[in-house]
Amino acid sequence: MFTAVVTVLTALWVGFSALSIFIRAKWVVEPLSEYGVARRWWPWLGTAKAAGAAGLLAGLVVPVAGVMAGIGLVLYFTGAVITVLRARSYAHVPFPLLYLAPVVAVLALGPVA
Description:
Blueprint: H1 2-22, H2 26-35, H3 42-58, H4 63-86, H5 94-109
Helix pairs in contact: 1-3, 1-5, 3-4, 4-5
């Protein structure tokens, strides 16, 4: 039960991140511009996060889907950390980590039995 709750909360958190890109929330898109992420990539980044969130939820029924989504999100948010570091915006490193950590936790907890 605990794993399911953590998974749902993580999926909602990642989904919120996706929505923030889709609605072009100022606090998300301004840093993306500063990091040099091209605008044409923003919809794809939001779609990747939304798909990952949906995959985590699907993993409640089909565990392999959740594991694959979790791996994809770990890669995504690791890439986000690298992007922030390359932009030398060190004060912003904690932000992608706030999304990466719960995804890692879901993967560490394992499939819902």
